[in-house]
Amino acid sequence: MSFHHFKPYQLPFTYQGYEFYKADGKVCFRREFQRPSRDDLKYNKAFANVRKSNTEFTYIVEISKDFRLALAHLFRISIPYFHSYIQQLFVKLNQFDLKHDLGHKRLDEALKHPEFYKFFREFNFSPNVGSWIEALQSGLRLNPSHGCLELLPKQVNYDFLFEYIRIDFVIGEVIFDFKTHSFTTNFIQRSLAIHDLEGFTFHPQFKTPETPKLHFLVYSVFAVPDYDYTRKRSKQVEPLLHVDLIVL
Q1: φ, ψ for residue 225, nearest 5 deg
Q2: Which among 4, 164, 176, 213 is least surrounded, fewest beta carbons within 10 Å?
Q3: pTM of the prediction?
Q4: Burial zone of 127 (CB within 10 Å; 0-12 exposed, 13-18 middle, 19+ buried)
């Protein structure tokens, strides 16, 4: 049978060493290869590392879900693929566990590595934020020693905020326990009109926890535009949100 005798409804099929399949509504092809069976993946010694990687990734998925729940108060919108973005963070952080082998690495052990905090601090939780945040950042002060977020209105560039009617702030303190996947949070929220910006402070009420708990202040800034943003898709609204944190 020639290639032209195959019909679209017969996908996927193989022909002369190639696999033809459908992805995103388009017909694609790749070289045919021998896939391991289910029994191979479960019992074959050659796939031992695959099983270990799957075990470790399952652990990462579970703990990243709990971490997103701890940060849920910060987000006014649903960010597409945010779960994958956080999972990538924890996959990298988990590698700082130098004590255990593949499949047994744990974040509560990785937390003891000094590079863990450096990598965590540098992670960008809102990579698609719009340029409007630059107008506010010069006036924002997150002071970890006093546990407060201050806004200095005289240092805000109002020329870049003309499209917005108010700014919604959420600031909180998070204590996350990687060993038990549990967390404690304390959040407050405040909305300020663009031309009535004034400073406010947030003071933590928790005591500094013992390791292996991660203790940090976190805040989000949502720029409410002068139109009904609720009618737009999350992907279009994502640039209105900025999230930042500092480890205590």
Answers
A1: -75, 170
A2: 4
A3: 0.77
A4: exposed
